[in-house]
């Protein structure tokens, strides 16, 4: 009996959950609700579907092409993962302490570019994707991306209702909880990759 296909998929529920939680914390769509509300009030409409699709394409493309870009400039994935651990660490500190170490300019409109790129698939997300790839299987990360994008789409569609239900205190509590989780993940990511550099 011969095998027609020799394609192995390494689906792992734990990897999907961990990747999903990291991306959820980094994207921080709940914490971005006030910005989304402000944009909606300013321009009247947010293109939720287009923003979600474009953000998905950006993240998946970077997941595959990002490593090639690193190889082109002579940086290995483990080095990038350690750098990513530092980024995640500072993002976690921002979320836990409620401070702003670095802040981009607020987008001026609710078109695809400001929502999909700076807000959803920003620098922190890109760094996290390559850091995750150093530790997890790609198929699990892709599933985690889709799960997060579905959640992002729901939030974009019902941001006013979510803000009303959670209130500012509820949003702050969620940010702090995921900040602590992200901090622990940053430490683990650093410990798992630092030994590969020496």
UniProtKB/TrEMBL annotation:
Keywords from the named record: Cell membrane, Membrane, Transmembrane, Transmembrane helix
Membrane topology category: Multi-pass membrane protein
GO CC aspect terms: plasma membrane
Transmembrane regions: 16-39, 51-74, 80-102, 109-130, 136-156, 177-194
Cellular compartment(s): Cell membrane
Origin superkingdom: Bacteria
Keyword Signal tagged: no
Family statement drawn from the similarity comment of this UniProt entry: Belongs to the UPF0056 (MarC) family.
PANTHER family on file: UPF0056 MEMBRANE PROTEIN YHCE
Protein name in the entry: UPF0056 membrane protein
Organism in which the protein naturally occurs: Maribacter vaceletii
Taxonomic classification: Bacteria, Pseudomonadati, Bacteroidota, Flavobacteriia, Flavobacteriales
């Amino acid at each position: 009996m011969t095998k027609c296909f020799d394609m192995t998929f390494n689906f792992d529920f734990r990897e999907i959950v961990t990747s999903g939680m990291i991306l959820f914390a980094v994207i921080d769509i709940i914490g971005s609700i006030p910005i989304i509300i402000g944009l909606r009030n300013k321009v009247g409409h947010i293109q939720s579907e287009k923003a979600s699709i474009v953000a998905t394409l950006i993240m998946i493309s970077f997941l595959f092409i990002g490593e090639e870009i690193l190889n082109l400039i002579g940086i290995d994935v483990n080095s990038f993962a350690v750098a990513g651990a530092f980024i995640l660490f500072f993002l976690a500190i921002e979320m836990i302490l409620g401070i702003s170490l670095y802040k981009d300019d607020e987008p001026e409109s609710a078109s695809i570019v400001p929502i999909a790129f700076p807000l959803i698939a920003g620098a922190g997300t890109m760094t996290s994707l390559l850091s995750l790839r150093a530790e997890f299987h790609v198929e699990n990360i892709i599933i985690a991306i889709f799960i997060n994008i579905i959640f992002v789409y729901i939030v974009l569609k019902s941001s006013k209702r979510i803000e009303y239900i959670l209130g500012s205190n509820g949003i702050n509590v969620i940010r702090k909880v995921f900040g602590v989780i992200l901090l622990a993940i940053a430490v683990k990511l650093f410990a798992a990759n630092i030994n590969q550099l020496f």
